[in-house]
User: Fold these one by one.
Assistant:
Number 1:
Amino acid sequence: GGTAEELKKLARETPPLTAPPEGPGETEKPGSPDDEGKATKQSASAASMLVALVDERAVVLYRNAEGTPFADVTTNGVRRTLHLRSRAFRSWLRGEYFVETGRAVNAQAIEDALGVLEARTIVGSDIHEVHVRVAMLDGQLYLDLANERWRAVEIDATGWRIVESPPVRFRRPAGMLPLPEPVRGRGLDDLRPLINVRDDEAWRLLVAWLTFTLHPAGPFPILSFIGEQGTGKTAAARILRRLIDPNKAELCRPPREEQDMAVGAANRWFVAYDNLSSLKADLSDALCVLSTGGGLTTRKLYTDDEENIFDHKRPVILTGITEVATRPDLLDRALLVTLEPIPKDRRIPESELLARSEALRPRALGALLDAVSGALRELPGVPARGLPRMADFARWGIALEKALGWPEGAFLGAYDANRAEAHSSAIEASPVGPAVLGFAEERGEWSGTAGDLLDDINRRRGNEKPPEGWPKTARGLGGAMRMISPALRAHGLEVTFDRGKDTPEGPGDPPSH
């Protein structure tokens, strides 16, 4: 208890714990109860002073919707948002204590003070959302420049501007790097020669995807670069990431578990996995959740029943020699961009390529922000009906087309063609897709149970060795058909599933048509 001045006075008057004096007379041995009592008293006094310093420095304590405690620390007019138990906030406490007393504070005092401060965030404090790199408030978008001044860019339909103290809060996870301050006056096409895209359609899809990553509502298509060695997949991923969310760990290997993916997504805006050869089914499903939004849960500890809940939407980049997005639900959310081999006379070292992109970054970022503002201006006039899958991205692409003066229908033409390619990939990657499509082309309209269909296709295949993953039961075929039915539908093959009381196969084996 007591006022801030009283608590600070108490801390100053409490001497630091020292070794016992030498000389005649009875002294306490190190480690005696008296020593422990002095240490406890010193820690308690220092903790009280730390709490008092937090009050005196007008630090704002609050929590986010998940209950995580934060502190807003303002120094020289710059507001910083720090996780209450982060290394940065602990360093701030140590520094303020040293300035006030000329002494170092011990770790126990910091822990005790943090316990008090965290309790304050639980009882009676405000709740504020805390963002990573990108935020939206009242229709305006914000991009954290992550520099020492904690400046951000504010974007709306009228343009963009750099703001000293944005009305939203950003945190700075480990590894986040600053963006350059954007420069006006140039177009995004300056960047195109550095990315090995083959045609205007692919370039427009990339520009639409990149600008849409600044709209945190999402959902975000997954950008998948495909191409043989030496086609510039990794360089393209680095260049795009550096424009929006530079990080010390630019491109990563795929995580082993969903939990690792969730933690990574919580601490960066872009999720980028490089040089993939395949994706396990559970990670493919987790990427779908990350793309369109949803909860990934893990236990906090293996010994308790509490859960960590990660609920994020993030832009995702994948690179691979072959199509690593093979499951239909992931392909349905993907933009597939194939990069062609680079002729010898056009090949330059990656270091030179990245140096050129680095020199372009301020102007490219300014052009990107201009495009985002233009899309925001045109977006209200784009109908929300009759759109393809990933409708929010499709609306954005149409708005961007108007803002950048692309030919009418250019974006949807490119997007429809890309989706047709994804549907073909989904059918080819499915063990049953080609067989079902061939059977339908031969037979035309067909109706029956999943078991009948499996028997008919097996007879048609004869003695041909079944592909890996070929279903052995009617239930297995029904599940595989459900997964690829959107892709089959895109190829003109309508698949319907009925479930009736008279279904002889019972639950899980519905008739197919």
Number 2:
Amino acid sequence: MHAAHKARFYSKMPSRPPSLRPSTWSVPWVLLHLLHSVSLWMHAAAPELQHWFPVGGQVGETLTVTSVGKNNDWPPKIWVSNPEVRFTAEETPNTWSVEIGKNIPPGSVLVRLFNEEGASQARWFLINETQSFRETEANHTMANANRVPIHRMIHGRLSERQDVDTYQVALKAGTTLIARMDAYVLGSTVDPLMRLLDADGRVLAINHDHYHLDPFIAFDVSRSDHYYVQVMGFPYPANASQRFGNGDGYIYQLLLTDRPYMKASETLKEEGSVRLNLDGWNLHDVRFPPGRAGILPRYSDRATEEQRRLIHMENLSPEKEPNDRLETATGISQAARGSLDHPEDVDWYRWSPEAHTWYQLEVQSGRLGYEGDCLLKLYSEDGKEMASNDDAAGMRDPRIEWQSKDPQTCYLRVSSLLKSSQPPTHYRVIARPMRPSCHLTLESDRLNIQSGDSQELKLSIQRTFGHSKPILIKALHLPPGVSMPLVTAEANQKEILLVFHAAHSSRSYQGPIRIMGVDLDNRWNQYVAGKETVTTSVNNGVPNGYLDQVFTKVLDPWLTLTSASGGMDNEEP
């Protein structure tokens, strides 16, 4: 309990006659004592941060945002992973002014709220290139739709009962409207649905799931006119209700643009030449920087690192037809681009792995936004099937982890599991050599210790691609008086307990620390531990978690050190 809280509390308490024992206190006095205790407990709690609304802004923008979560003592302190994004608390509780620096690159930052009792979970705030537009209610029908200029990033929330948000946009013939909604990847509690209507209210396009649960519409405009985009959604995770939902957590951002939108860009190597392959919409307006042909400018903000990483790939081999049999397989070094031109199409690739090497074999298709459900199989030189996978990589994309043995020629076979009629399914098939590695996952991203006490934190160890070395676990950036003994995780250990101790003389502290592992036989191999934000658990037929997020792992757990002596070693962490 804070000293100031104690002073205020006890100064208002009625004095107790010395003759009365606790067993003879009056009922009203006991109730008053309990009410004050509850009040103190509420004021002493660490702040909560579930979401920001809006969840992002444009480079160079200054805006007002709301923090969703309990904050009993306003204002809490705030920590941001990049000082170019400055949050300032306003007088109204849960209201902040945010100033985004002009030189910060597009992407995202992590933010925590904290007070003397502890810190909130880390949540993200997005930095976009696209100009922001903030939704205003009521906009549930075409008649009261928000009018949005084309090429805007709309920040909205389904806050009304069974809410529908409607946006009017003027489109020109000959362009393609891109409407991409981000909600699932933001950690929102909505499973969204989006549809496009013409001025007469006819539904022109509708989409529910495109990138995981987030919808996407690409519509070729044949007539210049006003069009309407409507957003609605069901609760996530799913429950028994079949009605549209609403709530503070139903946040989203919606990109509406008719500018170049890149689905994929690749450099293809063929017969000593290199050519650039672009796939997307409105690409006739692509312009390269002077003297930098082949260096693509950024197009259309992506919410997650996985989405950004997937766009560009270099040194792919183009598929050469016919390659529908092992004997006519297309030769590749590490990666190729191909297409399944009809439901029965099968593509074979010839590939020579290095001996005694781990490989990650995968197909990228659904994650790039292509339709279809690919199957990947690995065959030996004599045509024997050695491995097969359907969707380990997510979004209907297969992935195989495999270790080569003796030198040989291998074959990769790509086919479709969907046998109904469909457009060509484009894909990349990749055979990437991998080094032994470790994934270190913390049970929590927050650690609370009192001076003179110890605290345990569980660390899980997942070894990949043949890693079998002991790992030394250490903590960095600990404040004076706090220690964590070095721990060695043996090759067969899957989890280990880390013990932190705070000396009696240690002063109060708030700030991030770092936990990492290093291979004992090679200190250059380092692995940073963090709290994962993704999960593959399943509930009610849909993922009871998130398979991709703005940050899939929160590094640098937060340490709260409480000292009876008071004072802090870092007033401004």
Number 3:
Amino acid sequence: ARLHPRAGYVILILMLEKLCFGVRYRTVLCHAPKQQEKGIPMKIGFDNNKYLAMQSAHIRERISQFDNKLYLEFGGKLFDDYHASRVLPGFQPDSKLQMLLQLKDQAEIVVVISAEDIISNKMRGDYGITYDQDVLRLIDAFQGMGLFVGSVCITMYTAAPEVEAFERRLNELNIRTFRHYKIAGYPNDVTRIVSDDGYGKNDYIETERPLVVITAPGPGSGKMAVCLSQLYHEYKRGIKAGYAKFETFPIWNIPLKHPVNLAYEAATADLNDVNMIDPFHLEAYGETTVNYNRDVEIFPVLQAMFEKIMGECPYKSPTDMGVNMAGNCIVDDEACCEASRQEIIRRYYKSCAALLTGTGTEEEIRKIELLLKQAHASLEDRKVVPASLQKEKETEGPAAALELTDGRMIFGKTSELLGASSALLLNALKELAGIPHENHVISPEAIRPIQELKTQYLGSKNPRLHTDETLIALSVSAANNPEARKALEQLPSLRGCQAHTSVMLSSVDIWEFRKLGIELTCEPKFEKEKIYH
């Protein structure tokens, strides 16, 4: 099996121990146990099955309103939508993907990426990969689920070496590519845009199925422009295609200041999105609905484009363009409100951390502070925050707290062998496995040689084990320590737990918490006063 370098050096140390001290090891298991399908006790606020049925039915209905051809712009994440699952307890992270699978015989996917994002090597913060790499990941994921990916469209096209290399790579993989170009005066010069000198210069993306899902690695890729360009070309060919937008947030049929919608504003604080009442919908129907500023601001331009392409605009408001049914599937409003308040608090700490590391702004933090007040939430509502700070005060060193899903509070403190986050994970696993906390699931004798390797041979100044090193050591110990095996088997039970540390963690530790499904926040301060971290 291919090993992570950290796994390699932990195993190397244990093999050296065997050679030097005659310790007898059974076969080493280098992989974590398969994640069990364990139900995490939580208050369900969202009916996922109802959502899948309603959403797919509504999209079929929208397809039928046009000439059996609908371009559906997918906003947000098509799968791994953990924001939605956090603020709507019961929403599954892959719900939108599962919904599409119900339409897979009718649907094909076009993945959109901007040439500017390819050239700048724009990164996805959640996966740590570039947008062009994520296009390949998305294609693999869709095809692995049995969905048909028809092509990739490169928007804002420019003949840069990086862009041409990406096109060649896709073509070698038998993935069709199409080019859409910059249009002078976009988006306000409607006459130029909707003409042979505008959309007419773009490649016509050849599609086969009635539902064409337009998705992208992230925002700003040009999904809407691709949809409108395709409408222009379809109408020139006599096909009366349609356009719709599928974006989960803000939820249009719950109140403007509902915590679920406020949590969306917190999540997009860096984009400066603002939820607002849709004035066009209110005027047309006398109904109050919620949308966000960018869609409201661009709607008059879209109306003009639709009229020029189709002869008339099929929609009277930005809300009309949407097909989202999530608001109809909230079954426990208070559960969703509380989950959303917790999400706003987590976003606050994330923004504070971003400011500390130079990737965020004061404006983001001020905005989320205002959202906290509007949601009637305070930082103390996140129980692990005061708990970790109190433990830090007691131990006079960095500390961590984790709340299990049943409410039990677990602590970790800094020691000579382990950092607070590593100690926290081991303590939580022992608690879940019913192992006395004084029992060692990793012997100190196994940890010290790893520390020597880190400091004496690999140049690390921090001898304490990171969380990934700790879990690898635990998995090796599980080969002949039944209690270590019991602890390791509890890893899936950590998913959905809340944790807070009294200092900023390293990127390695943050990623480990994320992979385990633990909702982590950190106090915005470094353990040591240094310029470089």
Number 4:
Amino acid sequence: MKGKAVKICSLIFAGMLAAGCMAACGDRGTTGAQENVLTIRYFTGGTGSVWLENAAEKFEASHEGVTVKLEGDSGVTSLMQTQLTSGKDLADIYMTNEFAWQEQVSMGRLADLTDVYEAEVQTKDGPVKIKDYMLDEVAESRYLSRYEGSPSVPWTMLMGFSQAGLVYNEEMLLSTPHTTAKAGEWDVGDLWTAPPETVADLVAYCNDLNAREDEILEMTGNTEFDPLTFSGNEPVWLQRLMYGWWGQYQGAEKLNTANADVAEQGGGTFFDFWNYGSADVFNQAGIEAAIGAFQDVFVDLNTHQYKNVPLASTSYSTYDAERRFTQQQTAMVVGGAFIYNEMTGVRDVDGDGEDDFTMKMMMLPAVEGAQVGDDGEPLKMNLYNCEDVVLIPSQATNVELAKEFLILLCEEESLLDYTKLTSELRPFKYDPMDAETEDFEYGPFALSVIENFNACDVHLVRCPVGTEMEERTLISLYSQPIWDTAYTSFTASLLTQDAGTIAENIYSGAQKEWPKWEAQVR
């Protein structure tokens, strides 16, 4: 690998059709940065820009003669790819969604961020290096050797640490009666008092909602209603649901040996999967269990169609799915914690100045066979998306200023401001509740996100947590294939094949593709 560019399979670009597409896109970065004009190009969807504007104002106040120029763009990922490749019209900082940044490292196009990671920021507990302030699960996730034998250093940073899962309408939940009994839990006719705690409960809640469809239509004035919706244009969010159930069944930090198939099939833990020690990681029993749980909620294998969702969901954009949810045509929507801020313009459909209903994120319901703790209860595991990218081009005009700005974004004050304004978290060891004062209190959605994070026993991430850098495989560092890389018919097969067959095809596909994946990173 030394002296050669590493060959990489590009990662899936996600989130490009979010509601931010409606936002102004500036001048689309047609000119490069000027000296002392720190130019930042960022994705306009999701978390918005107010937090970034606040940081820019603070940076300018502490850097006399420096101007921060913010250029929001819903298509910044493709723009960044073009500009990094050409070396022309570069911004000083790019902030975007999933992106194959590893390839840019091998080409020498990214600035080394060691100075940023080693910098100290002030916290309520005193000064701490940024690399030590980051959550342990992701602190080393952006380190990479540029070529064989070179030191491993950080090249990019993470922005959000967004819980992936289900957002729900609390009023609709609390007004829905049970149509079936659960011993020791509820009787027929009792109202739901809390979100579903298991996948079986989630299926029961969907059935209960379907049973009161006519009542909900009359109450909301709508002509259509379904329990759930999702964006078919971004099926990756459906996969993130499955990742969570996979981790629960397989075990993340240690094997869930209570499940005989986990012990028999091998492949290690959920976190071991992401180190790609061999093709056997694609034989993890948690994969089949996760697909089965997904199909229980979303798929009718008899008709080969989705259930509990609008049939048009397969063609929905993120905005379409969010809009249907805010219009109360569904009781739940699949997405991430960024969704509340992203729906700012549509949460008040009736125009009274208040959210039309209480929106919250639920803890991911436990799959049957989920790993349990010492108390015998299922461990709480949510998947957290940390695939966004913040980077500085090596040929940027203001590299040192850009590094200083990234350091500013890691200060405790900046982290708290981010959470206050976006209702989601950043991957650092700070307490978001420190932001609450006489002048500010979090709303119900943000509180649910914070409470879920704090209550989680394991924060699942797509990273080989616990694996030392020197033990990371080249495939984990440069390629990171997933199940639809091994089995390209994965998404379509969810409607036509049972979970066991799909899992077998994933494993056989991985065995076939493994030599190619290894060759791509040599």
